[in-house]
Each structure stands twice: as structure tokens, then as C-alpha cells.
Amino acid sequence: xxxxLPTWQGEAGQxxxxxxxxxxxxxxxxxxxxxxxxxxxxxxxxHAFEKGTPSTVRVREFHIKYMREARPGSALRIETAITRLGxxxxxxxxxxxxxxxxxxxxxxxxxxxxxxxxxxxxxxxxRLKRNAKKYLIETPDYAMPKGxxxxxxxxxxxxxxxxxxxxTIGRGVFQSxxxxxxxxxxxxxxxxxxxxxxxxxxxxxxxxxxxxxxxGVLLExxxxxxxxxxxxxxxxxxxGVLGVKDKVRQLVHHFVxxxxxxxxxxxxxxxxxxxxxxRQLVVPKKSVVKAIxxxxxxxLHA
Length: 302
Known about the structure:
Layout: E1 5-11, H1 25-42, E2 55-66, E3 75-85, E4 89-98, E5 103-115, E6 120-121, H2 126-132, H3 158-164, E7 167-173, H4 187-195, E8 210-211, E9 214-225, E10 234-245, E11 248-256, E12 263-275, E13 280-282, H5 286-293
Antiparallel strand pairs: 1-3, 2-5, 2-9, 3-4, 4-5, 5-6, 7-10, 8-9, 9-12, 10-11, 11-12, 12-13
Helix pairs in contact: 1-4
């Protein structure tokens, strides 16, 4: 019988929650990282995440769908399965549950088996392929994209982003504590950098990202690494509006090297407004939707 494997169990810590009173988007990936590592080790790659290991498993792309918010102290658990097994890569789905069994989020990941001295991918060992058979499933419908637009994710260099008219909303230098055993920046820290810069993207929030009890909230996000950044690499975040409909606005964010102009990664985010008192989404005013529509960038992609 095909099944999920329990891979993580814990709580939403107070220090992991943000001003909205719920688990910050980056920490879904912090917990998914542990689930990923547990799953891969259970598949037979027991040394894949040790310091000094010659090979490891890294995230090339991920998609998160936030379903029911986790508040400080919320008891959570993750179960994981494989949805695709390739020669050098595979796809996982993590399902995060609240303690009452309701869905908190789903995280889908595309992973690569990497030889660290060359950073080249190479085939999975036979033991992983044998062990994986028990956990190979079809992607559940509830984990599939909902408000995510169907757009290519090939990245863009700085010159192209400037021609499109994307705004610079963040900048900095990646630090050593943001890297994993592959010496490249971990997925959760890319999300953390975006989370710490989004208030500079005023064009996407003509109604204000924080107005009384109403604040902007992330509902769904997809990210793909194009060139993996390392400690000491400089970055800027260039963003634009892709579309707006109903209760959501679709935004694109590019992480690029400001010196070389090359892309580290790109993401598509589906955002809305949440009433912090009622804990429900808010329909934006028609004037706001119209204002957002005016700043949509034609031909923009992630």
C-alpha cells in the first residue's frame, strides 16, 4: 500500500511568528527542511546532511500553499511522500497538519542529488530507489496550485528586469548562517529575505500593506533557484505586479546579483488581505483593484 511517512512533529514557536500573529512563511520551509532530511535519511541516504559529506540533496524548486494559519503554540506535524522519481532528481510533497487533523499547508519540492566537489547532479543509489517504492504516490489534489498563474520560471537578468520596470524592494548580502551543508543558501532564508523586504513594495499595495486590523498576507508561493547563491554573495530583490483578481494579487519577485546581473532565483506569490480580528480574507475595494491593474507589467514572468 502506498503511504506517507511521518517526518516532523513539533509546534509553531512564538519566536517564529510575525506581526500577523501566525507562523511566518519562512518557517514552513524551516520545518519542511527537517521533514525533507528525515525522509531522505529514511530512504537510505543516512549521511546526506552531515558536515563534510561529499554528496547531499538540495532544493531546486518549491511550491507552498498556506491553508489554515498556525498561531503561536500550535501543535503541528508533517507527513511526506514521493510524487516523482527521476534519475538524478525527485519530487516530494509534505503535508502539514494541525493536531485536530486539519490541513495547515502543503509544500511541494523538486530535489536534486548533488556531488558537492563539482556541484553536479548524479544518479540516486539503488537503496533509495528500492525504499522509495512504498512512498511513491500521485500528488494529492489539495496540494496542487490554486491561485498560482501558469507562467514560465526561467528567470531574468538585471537588464531585463530594469527594462520591464521592476522595482527594487530589497538588497543585502547572504550570510554564512543562511547556508546549509552544500554551502548554498537554504530555501527558508530566501523566503526570509523577501518577508523582510515586502513593505518596500508599495506599488502592489495601494491600499496599504497594513491598514488598521487589515494586513497583507501570503496565500501561495512558488520559487525556483536558477543559480544557487552562497555566503558573501550580494543580492537585490526586483519585483513587479503580474495580475489581480477577486481577493488576490499575483506578484513576481526576482533575486539577482547586482554586480553580475545574473539571476539567483525567481518566485511567484499570491497575496491577499486578512482581517486580523475576524481571521478571514478581505475583498479589496474596486478602486484598489483598478489601481493595481494600472501597474501590471506586460510580459512579466518569474
